[in-house]
Amino acid sequence: METALAASITNLNSSPSVIKRHHLYPCYTSINSQKSPKYNCRYKNSVSFLTSCSTKPDTNKDNVTDPSSIDDPNLSSSIQKLPVPTSTQALSSVNSLFSRGLVFDLGQKNAWDSAEVGSPVVRRFLSDEEERWYMWYHGNSGKNPGSDHIGLAVSSNGIHWERGEGAVQSSVDVGLVMNCSKDWWAFDTRGIRPGEVVVMSSSKIRANSAVYWLYYTGFSSEEAEVSDALLKFKLENPERLLTCFGENNENGGIGKIYKSLPGLAMSQDGRHWARIEGEHHSGALFDVGPDGDWDSLFIASPQVVFHKSGDLRMYYHSFDLKTGHFAVGMARSRDGMRWVKLGRIIGGGGSGCFNELGAVNAQVVKNKKDGTYVMAYEGVAADGKRSIGLAVSTDGLKDWKIQDSPVLKCSEEDGWDDKGVGSPCLVEMDGEKDEWKLYYRGIGKAGQIGIGMAVSSGSDITSFRRCQGFHL
């Protein structure tokens, strides 16, 4: 048995695109049986980012899980300390770009993220010695404009970010950390974008420390045909920025609706990821709804909140053909792997509202001070303009109170983000500063694309202001 398992691991390193799915489960079991398992142990002699491996964890018929959130200080201390990148890759800095909130620009020429960045997932880790910030995000080089990848940048303050131009080469490096799958049957062969990173321990995952759980959107090449007569605008999935690829670039997938589904990957360092095969035949966690359901076209931007042991909630968006609006729905799970849909929770706003055509890219966090659930989302106006809105719920399930006005709008004319803002990511600050930071993707009319940051006025999260400068 050990010889067969070793052969499977060798095959994964040499030609992952031809490994059969039934080979992967015993491979994972072998890793679990090691004394100090590392999810990246099988990649020691190959490229350090995952291209196609899928793994299936141990399952428990009682469906019992015992995850703990990163707020647990014991888990926080188990996360790797903020690394100093050591690879020979050139690193770019954005120190000169802090004007009006821009903290993360496009990568340097020929870098993996030189044409597009977005979907920021920002996490802040505190210890007795230091403050550590990680940002996972999607990027695109333009060489293959229809294919997004996931990368990691690091910071000591959430403002100055270090990034890599290519794939990570070690467990202390930054740059490209996850690529599209090469398996023909997989749901994520065309592109991937991060939705959420949760740090948990679980009785189902035998590891010597807490594990990063990455929930992400995977895009396939399967297209949905929708009559333009049913739509008030040109629907895309994923949404493509015309400034990146040109209005007539068919290779970029502009104007097309590709099927997307939610996926899960795990890591012990935030860099080397192993895909966890879900119950759907494509490896996704679950499928779109049947014809006629609000989420029958695609599932996008899965974002997961740990409520308590045995209760995880996923928020995601789709497009409802019946109403012609985007909507946010949710699913619930006991173990973070098998999910039950609960339906739509937020749809389109009233006529003339900033969210008239619905909500996308929702992010939900639990307010540490009052226990309420705060949802930041990207509102879609009738003219297609994007703003960031806010909704609050006492239990995170129902009765979402939607704020009438956006908390962050496009900047004034000629600003770097004067065309649209979206993909929000809220970070509640601990310690002396009683405030929230809002990271977001911004798009400018002049072709500017980047990730910005705005700050609340103290604990008031009803409005955010772009930072004009930083004092470090």
From TrEMBL:
<protein>
    <recommendedName>
        <fullName>Glycosyl hydrolase family 32 N-terminal domain-containing protein</fullName>
    </recommendedName>
</protein>
<feature type="region of interest" description="Disordered">
    <location>
        <begin position="55"/>
        <end position="77"/>
    </location>
</feature>
<dbReference type="InterPro" id="IPR023296">
    <property type="entry name" value="Glyco_hydro_beta-prop_sf"/>
</dbReference>
